[in-house]
Amino acid sequence: MHSDRGLQATRPGVWQILSPYWRSSERWLAFALLGMMIGINLGSAWVNVESNRVTGAFTDALIAVDWQKIKPLFILSFVLGLGAMMMTWINVLGNQYLALRWRTWMTLRYVRRWTSTRAYYDIERDGSLSNIDQRIADDVNELIPATLNFFLSLVMVLINTVTYTALLWSLSGTLHFSLLGGQWSIPGYMVYAAYIAIILQVALSHWLGKSLIGLNMQQQNAEGDFRFLGVQVRENAEQIAFYQGGQREGDRLIQRFARVRAIALAVIVRGLKVSFGQSIFSHFLSPLPTLLALPQLLRGEITFGDMTRIHMAYGSLGATLSYFMQAYQGFTRWLALTNRLRDMEAALQAVENKPSALRRYEHDLPGFECRDLRLYAPDATPLTAITHWQVMPGERWLIRGASGVGKSTLLRACAGLWNWGAGEIVFARDRKIFFLPQKSYLPVGTLKAALCYPYNEAAFSDEACRQALITASLPGVVALLGSEDRWQHRLSGGEQQRVAIARVLLHQPDFLFLDEATSALDPQTETAVYQALIAGLPHTAIVSVAHHQALTAFHTHQLTLEAAAPPLRQAREETQHAVIKEGQRPENVLSS
Questions:
Q1: Which contiguous run of DSSP H or E holds residue 401?
Q2: What DSSP line would sit under 291-332, residue for residue?
Q3: What is the pLDDT of residues 258-300, one digit of tens each?
Q4: In this structure, is the dihedral angle defined by the CA atoms of residues 283, 155, 105 and 344, taken in order, positive or negative?
Q5: Within 10 Å of residue 374's Cβ, how many Cβ atoms?
């Protein structure tokens, strides 16, 4: 399981997550849509004020049974309601369309950063972040509409706060009362009452619900871990079945879900406390506007229609200000989402800016070279060191050494997948390089698509693909070339390795690195495969990591790796390293 704690210290600001879209090439359309929605909110505020006036006049006309006033006021009220409905509909449509465009842009940006810079490998290798796929797919999808709604709601709150404050101030008049032997007057007293009430409500909500921020983030992580384990069970179903490990995996899933349930229950309980506290507080304050306006009505200073308008204006201002209280739980979830995306941004930036003393670049050379190369484990433990190693086109190298000395690590370093080390790896410019691990990736789809990967299947003809499969000792799957399947589950380990060999024969790389790439084959098939590689790739430099002694005959050079000496002795030991000259045979071994 991954841990995100180390990223919290390097989290970028929320603005760094949300602002890039508003500086992108789509910014003008985005600002136009946002401006339209703000304009609609302004129009809605005017409609609400006008509706308040019409409602008061309509109430007085009903009491007076004045038909001449009732009819036009009824029609005007209907038109205002229709206009408010249309503006709401257009506002929702614009909001959803802008959210979709923003989500699309942000998702594509993160997908490119995740996949184009090998961040997908480094993050999983280092275990620096959990469930990055869930963050891109789910968290971005949830964050964008929530952010838009929060922003537009805040704009509407500001507009309505100013509007209803001014309206309630003008309607409520001045409260006159006697206290401590003196006469007191408070103009716009109902505005003060509304603000005091909502401040107390927000303070109560924060006191009851502040722990929801951490709980929501824990819930997102727990859901991702539970889903990840389920995917692991599905992807490794056969191996689990061989071990009869279904019950054990079920227990692990139940344990993971128990954490999901416990956190979800904690969120429910905490949310219930917040809602209950808000409801009780609101219930006790609900008669307040009526009680405050009643003295003026009884003294004849206002009409019943005026009292209705005061009650509506107080309710509208209270509803506007109570947004902060009502949105508190949603805000805690929004903050949890932004924190998860901030962690993801920090992880991506760490990968993109990760320094390394191991340099890999291209040069005008016919082959490739390793110069003063030192490789370390992530904990800085020395693995191996190579003073100079050169591989020329057409050469075939076999890398040997004890387990754990760094044979596979050397191949990862050549592929640019290993940052712990120092020295230089220089490749020929514009050369095609292929790395075949023990288990190669076969994407879901047609067998031809898996064979042509990472290129599009249209890059090679069907006949070329069929011939590659036959040459790789896989004539039995030629008929499946156009079939779609999950090939990593459909094919055996040996068949998957031969598909990878067929892929190499099809792509004709200049450099081929094999890391136990034929370990699942029987000796006869392995011999046939290497013979096919030698015959089909006469100008390709082949570097193999393997333990089978029989493979020595297929290689013209050997590189034997030895464990690196501790740092204080390393320089002295490196002087013992020799360099293989072009044309040496297997008995001439380079010891590193």
A1: strand 396-401
A2: HHHHHHHHTTSS-HHHHHHHHHHHHHHHHHHTHHHHTHHHHH
A3: 888 888 888 888 878 777 776 777 667 667 666 666 766 666 7
A4: negative
A5: 22
- 3-state secondary structure (DSSP) of residue 585: coil
- pLDDT of residue 328 exceeding 70: no
Give me the residue label for tokens 């390795």. Answer: 497
Q: Look at residue 187 and give its three-state secondary structure.
A: strand
pLDDT digits (tens, 9 = 90+) for 175-201: 676 677 777 777 777 777 777 877 777
Work out the number of other CB atoms within 10 angstroms of the CB of residue 112: 11
- Region of 373 please: left (phi>0), alpha (psi -120 to 50) or beta: beta
Mean pLDDT of 534-556: 88
DSSP summary character for residue 362: E
Determine how many CB atoms are found less than 10 A away from the CB of residue 335.
Answer: 16
Cα–Cα distance measured from residue 453 to residue 504, given in angstroms and rounded to the nearest whole number: 10
Q: What pLDDT is attached to residue 106?
A: 92
Q: Is the pLDDT of residue 27 over 80?
A: yes
Q: Which residue has the tokens 């602002």?
A: 19
18-31: burial string, b at 16+ Cβ within 10 Å, e else = beebeeeeeeeebe
Question: Which has the closest alpha carbon to 227: 262, 259, 198, 273?
Answer: 259
Q: Where are the alpha helices (DSSP H) in 181-303?
A: 189-209, 212-235, 237-242, 246-285, 288-298
- How far apart CA 529 and CA 527 sit, in angstroms, is 5
Token output for 219: 């819930």
Strands 182-187, 174-179: pairing kind:
antiparallel
Which residue intervals of 358-446 are DSSP H helices?
A: 407-414
Amino acid at 86: M
Q: Which pairing describes strands 557-561 and 396-401: parallel, antiparallel, or unpaired?
A: parallel
Residue-by-residue DSSP string for 39-65: HHHHHHHHHHHHHHHHHHHHHHHHHHT
DSSP string, 519-578: TTS-HHHHHHHHHHHHHH-TT-EEEEE---GGGGGG-SEEEEE-PPPPHHHHHHHHTT--
Among 223, 209, 225, which residue's Cα sits nearest to residue 268? 209
Token readout for 4 is 């995100």
CA distances from 177 to 38, 155, 303 (A): 42, 37, 20
> Over the stretch 410-445, which tens digit does the pLDDT of each residue have?
988 888 788 888 899 888 888 888 888 888 888 888
Give the chain's count of helices (H) and strands (E): 21, 14
374 has a pLDDT exceeding 50: yes
Q: Are strands 396-401 and 445-446 parallel, antiparallel or unpaired?
A: unpaired
- Mean pLDDT, residues 220-240: 77
DSSP string covering 475-489, please? GGGGGGTT-EE-HHH
Stretch (H or E) spanning 376: strand 368-376
Place of tokens 């023990």: 438
Cis peptide leading into residue 187 (ω within 30°): no
pLDDT for res 591: 43
Grouping H, G, I as helix, E, B as strand and the rest as coil, residue 269 is helix
Q: Which residue has the tokens 């070339």?
A: 481
- Residue 368's DSSP bridge partners are 391
Mean pLDDT of the chain: 80
Residue 257, classed as helix, strand or coil, is helix
